[in-house]
Amino acid sequence: AQKVTQAQTEISVVEKEDVTLDCVYETRDTTYYLFWYKQPPSGELVFLIRRNSFDEQNEISGRYSWNFQKSTSSFNFTITASQVVDSAVYFCALSEGAGNKLTFGGGTRVLVKP
Amino acid sequence: EAQVTQNPRYLITVTGKKLTVTCSQNMNHEYMSWYRQDPGLGLRQIYYSMNVEVTDKGDVPEGYKVSRKEKRNFPLILESPSPNQTSLYFCASSALPPGTTSNQPQHFGDGTRLSIL
To answer: What is the dihedral of CA B44, B37, B101, B52, to 10 degrees?
Structure first.
């Protein structure tokens, strides 16, 4: 069975600090897909990234970067130079290959103070 | 504009009174899914549908029903709602299921907040 754990329930930082969100997953499949979603205070879910299990390259998109490590079953997310607009709940999710289900972690609330 | 539309956005009702939350997408997506969001638990999948007339249980299907008679619509039915179904519900759609090679993310609706008294 697939499982996602986000151990940090809430992180509070001051603007311009970096913040790293941890995501640890469990799956028996060798093919799987990992996702990050952002849920701002307005409540909608915003897709951030999708990564398949065969691609361990780290990815950077502006101030966002992702570190995928199969050896530790982790897919961590870093916000560099955080801004108030980054305040949101962030969810990590997993889908096993050829799977029809998407399993989410419990989410990490990030509060960026000015 | 590509979107997933849920109705109602908010509903307060009483135990046992049947209700339906509608979900409609205009992207001709084959895959649709319902989730509920509860504090500390993230989003949990209730039901999903691979295509018209093809539905299957997610991780928390008890107390819910769905139907997929048309490609664009995927209503969530609570036949006899109970207080433990008080939650924030999201409908989502994508061209293909999440566990496929296509890099198509799921599109989520804006959510429906249900309170069952």
So the answer is: 80
* Tens-binned pLDDT, residue by residue, of chain B (117 aa): 889 999 999 999 999 999 999 999 999 999 999 999 998 899 999 999 999 999 999 999 999 999 999 999 999 999 999 999 999 999 999 988 887 766 677 899 999 999 999
CB A63 within 8 A of CB A77: no
Rounded CA-CA distance A103/A111 in Å is 24
User: Would you call A72 helix, strand, or coil by DSSP?
Assistant: helix
Residues 42-61 (B) with a CB less than 8 A from some CB of A: 42-45, 48, 50, 56, 58-59
Using a CB–CB cutoff of 8 Å, tell me whether B27 touches chain A: no
